[in-house]
Amino acid sequence: MSRRRRGILPAALAALAVIAAALLTPERAAEPPPFEGHPFTWGEDALFARLEREFDAAREAGCEARTAALDDGLEALDLAIDRVHDSGAADEEAALASLEARLFAVAPHFGACLDRVPELAARVARLRRVVKDRSLAWAPDDRAARDRLYRLLYGSRAALEELLLQMPDPSPLALLAGTDEPSETPSTTIRGVTLHSGDILVSRGGAPTSALIARGNDYPGNFSHVALLHVAEDGTPTVIESHIESGVGAFTAERYLEDTKLRIMVLRLRADLPAVRAAPDLPHRAASHALERARGGHIPYDFAMDDTDPSQLFCSEVASDAYRSQGVELWRGRSSLSGPGLTRWLAAVGVTHFETQSPSDLEHDPQVTVVAEWRGADTLFADHADNAVIDVLLEGAEAGDDIGYDYPRLPLARLAKAYSVVLNLFGEVGPIPEGMSATTGLRVEWLRARHGAIRAGLERRAEAYRATHGRRPPYWTLVRLAREARDELDRAAR
After folding, report:
1. Which domains does the chain have, with CATH numbers?
2. What is the pLDDT of residue 407?
3. Whole-number Å distance between alpha carbons of 195 and 371
4. What is the pTM assigned to this prediction?
5. Is 147 helix (H, G, I), strand (E, B) or coil?
């Protein structure tokens, strides 16, 4: 063998070693910065257990026996809402506490008269408007005020939804009407609701990552995605949104509704905001700005969740960037993601900013009004089950569990990423989204598989619970059943 050939072999082996190392070395996840926030906790296990006992007692007693108690409870709830509406600063705290107590006091009585749940739904819609009106005067960075707002908005939705899940036919309440906030922008009708240009569509997807986005927050919520509606003068609706796979795009309303949506909430800028009074077409101008950007060139999805960088946009930024262009800053209360386990998991999937704009938190912004909310019976249970699994996974994260991935598949994932980069150059979508690393793609797959396995165990347990108790398990029981399903998987893996 010639010297030249003898020199080529070591060089080739060295090159192969370098390539192998490159294919097998995972990217390091960003180290989340220390953050001084802390997640909200209900700390009301005894209350929830009592509410469940009272609900079962009401079911046993029957509607006729509980009609008077239900009527009295609704009257007391109405008076509590009125008191919050009329309260001054001196007695506001007591009025809000009374409102929460009255809400949870009356809710179990509907176990006897599920056909009257629409009466509670009407009160929840009014409660939401009155509480948000009061919150206009609250400092957005006041933790106590934020807790009060969350307890009432999230708590009232949770109370209503526990009842919806027990109804034989909850379809009449698939649409919960809110406030038909006046608007002077072009309009269209979708699913029986008049929507206006500039309306914000907040929804919940069906993927495990959607549940992680909704629950991975200091104030765990029900929503994972934000889109902005543009309505042309001729009534043609266009939805502007940012997808993980393809970045910012403009889509028909039909295409928007084709994607899995476990729930959709419509938010609208208040008509009495000084900026809207001065320029009633402001929401339409914001939507037009977003549409022009979406059609003007490629805007990648922002995995870092940096809401200060408009060159890349995650879903919430589509709305905030559009309204910022018109001088309106949405998300008065910024979202904080501060649990050490949560931030470690989010960093592992590419997040670098842990004070940002989470979809669920936009509902708490007093500048926007809830116009309507859609949810179906089956999708509502799917939403709750996905939430319970993610809550249990995040409990594990806080206890030290890491988000895993299938390391032996990393070389193939790297090749898939290289193929995706080539497709991205030609405006196509590859198997691994632009801005997502190969390792992150595998971590997302791990989350999907882990979530699916626990969810399957949860569904079996939920059906058994329903057969035994004659009703669906409430959310706190779903979480317990999800823990049992997780522990069973872990024992089988050992």
Report:
1. 45-170 (no CATH), 176-374 (3.90.1720.10), 390-493 (no CATH)
2. 87
3. 9
4. 0.92
5. helix
